Amino acid sequence: IEFSPITDTAIAAERVAAGDLDLVVTSSPDAILTLRDSDSVNTIENLYSGENDIMMNTRAAPFDDIRARQALTYAADRESYASLITQGTSPLADSMFHPDLIWNNPDVVQEGNMPELAGPLVESYCADVPENCTDGKINMELQYSGPSVTQTRIADILTAGWEPFFNVTEQELLQDAHILEVATGQFQVVTWRQFGSVDPDGEVVWLECATAEGFITLNWVRWCSPERDELLYAQRATDDLDARVEMWREIQAEMNESYAYIFTSHTNWTIGHQERVRNLCGQTGPGGELMFCNNAGGQFFHNVWLADS
User: Whole-model pTM?
Assistant: First the structure.
């Protein structure tokens, strides 16, 4: 097996379509569209193993104040995000669960494209905390990883929606530096991707109060809710599926009401491969259960083989 590091997955997808490469794993809408349009490429798509979102640091000004978090949420242009970024390859997200999953709370709706509600909140905030505002707008920094054409495009779309109410400074960092700054709380707002565990219990580490404390944290937004912790640990302590589903629905409602996250879209992890790549799926676990063959782009290669033609 030969791996070719190609930083632009749109180019990698074109090379798979041309037959120069056998397989690519991507979440780039441009690449996914290229793979879908190629007659020589088969695709395996998974919309259930990751969420794109915007995170706010709830322990750093100005987003330690819920008014600033709400204003940012209301002014977020999710409609332009859907049309210009996802290009129909993945649906807008209301929470950490795709609507097809049993855990999803259908009553939770991600707000956005409601700029008329942002203005009064910004006015109220700036009247109380004028040192964090300039010319009647809240000062903020948006951080994202790059260089990336897609990430820059996302930042531009978000900034355009926020500018009537926020003075936005954009900061592009290499991904390792970006992650380190988030882990140590050196950010105000970031574009991000996470969640998507096969069992939602895998998300507890990102949400519990214990990981919101200290110099390095895994609860990136640093939002601590003792009531949410009770639900997180109660769902872990029971085998009652219906009870777990109900608790995760309550957790989603609490996350929505905290205004720490703005969910944008369900990540479409896509594997595109030439016909000669065989047996990508069909692996089973120790109990005979069928295993995911594309979870967050993860792939089993030990049973894969290449046909001669």
Answer: 0.92
